[in-house]
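Re: zinc ion structure - here you go.
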Amino acid sequence: MHAATTVSLIPVLSDNYVFVLHGGGSGAAVVDPAVAEPVIAWLEERGLELEAILHTHHHNDHIGGTPGLLQRWPQAAVIASAADRERIPLQTQGVQGGDRLTLLGRHLRVVEVPGHTRHHIAYVLEPQAEEAAELFCGDTLFAGGCGRLFEGTPEQMLSSLQSLSALGTSTRVWCAHEYTEGNLRWAAEREPGNSAIAERLAAVQQQRREGQPTIPSSIGVELATNLFVRAQDAAALRQLRGHKDLWRG
Ligand SMILES: [Zn+2]
């Protein structure tokens, strides 16, 4: 039996999260290190050794800490989309959708989720026993929202969100930014009569007042309250995305 793998989050920059996976041993993996220093300090405090760095996409606030982490732990594997090798140049293990990885004695699956960027990928830590699956989805699915369409189409984002929604309602969603309150304030304006959104917004505002992260969410919560996940087709998603891009709440 493996000890349960724990996921922790480290808040960095103004609203980024770096995620740390660690189990019973001294090994750890991180997802989307925007910066190195707080991550190094966090791991050293706990006596953890970095074995792998996973990237969801090439934006600097997801890969910027990798050179510094590699200085401290030169043997760490750097996992990223093989198709994005030019923009994530330090990768030692290129992956694509459908690939399976073994990390810290656990299995992860790679899912292609283009839309925010053309080679964006997500990682699913497969559950064991009573645990829920853990999803690391970068800037594709946010709690109450989705990523901006910098390089992809509404059709791609719709399909990506559908792939993630299909992971099962108990799947925990670790998205890379604390955008939840703004997303839900926007959604509550769009659908003022939606009590599920209103209730979630109130709960999230309470968490934020207490200085707590609103992450992780779950696929079940997103299916109930995320207007992008609930979009019926690409035209509806395009309309929502355009409206949200211009919203200044
Ligand atoms: Zn991004």
